[in-house]
## 1
Amino acid sequence: MSLPARVLVSKIFVFSTFVYVCNCTWITSDQVKLIQNILNNFVWNGRHKVQQATMYLSVLLGGLNMINIQNVLHSLHTKWMVRLQGHWAVLVMNYLE
């Protein structure tokens, strides 16, 4: 399987599952690092040839457009913070009191 195909497979199968799990449970930083290492090893077949910072860049900038699990997790948390500031904030604050 080619390198772009492995990146695509990791996006299709891992990304959707990861987002679902993160919406249902809390993921620790150790688990995030483990998942990212598994993805990197799958994409590179065990031997890394490019720096990780370059790997996450878009294809137009010379990268592979690979998923950065930590950034995905931060965006999901930010999304929940925005939701909590709306109508749900009143319910959560009443529950916490």
## 2
Amino acid sequence: MRCILCKLIASPSALGVPIENVLVIDGLRNEIPKYTSGIAPNDVVRVGALGLQSLSLTRDIPHGLRVAYTIAVSHVNYFLVAVICISVPTAFGMEWLNIEKVSA
């Protein structure tokens, strides 16, 4: 039990990364049709952020894709702020113990 707890505390990003990935991909699928036309959201997810220029033939499409990426990444920032808002009061509510005194 103690080892499992240590692993969960030592690697909190193991749970956060998949959640953030889902938030970005879902945000892209929702926002790309609003700001661009003729580009499938799955194609944008496939090429990634560095391949946006290869998808567009006109100048305004990369701008729309960048706006969609900005909104999708802002969803991740909202998630992180929510996690911080939950974890800080929880940490203040915990009992702070000195390990040397407890183990003696």
## 3
Amino acid sequence: MIQVKANSNIVRESYNISIQNCIPRPVPGAFYRPKAKKVRKPWSFPESVFRDYVPDSDALIGRCFEEDWTHISKPKLKEDQMAKCRVLLKQNYRVMYQACTNIG
């Protein structure tokens, strides 16, 4: 622990001050040029990245179901049971499709 007397100089005469010319800091933003505002066109669907988007339609959902049906591993059922299963899945396919597309 360093003890200092009440009236003693902490900085001695041999201490060399290296900063001779000290000036205050400039006002914030003094060296920055103001940014020019870009002229922005209003957003429009035909010029956006979504211009090629095709909304889901019954025809699209039907084509998706038919494509998925060819790729699934089907259980070993009789033909009439398989037809009933296919009809049931096709009726509920839109809900399954939307759930899967919302997941990512």
## 4
Amino acid sequence: MRVGVIGLGYLGVTHAVAMASLGHKVVGIEASAERLGKLKEGELPFFEPGLAAGLASALEYTATVLIPISLHVRITRSAISPRLATKILLNIS
């Protein structure tokens, strides 16, 4: 299954890593280029036991892709509908 996660803060990263550990293909979308760069290098902006190892595994062994939202579409988190999110994710994954 393909899973899209918009926003890679505490909940988004945790969810994306959990879904990748279950074998799902994950697309993570983040507006902050700085946060995205750190995540791609395996650095987390917070501590959660076991999450750093899970992120490293997700980036190495599963089809986990982290992309900046600005490359595809600019949206506000409050304005996006589930239907629009699905269309965006299907078009970029």
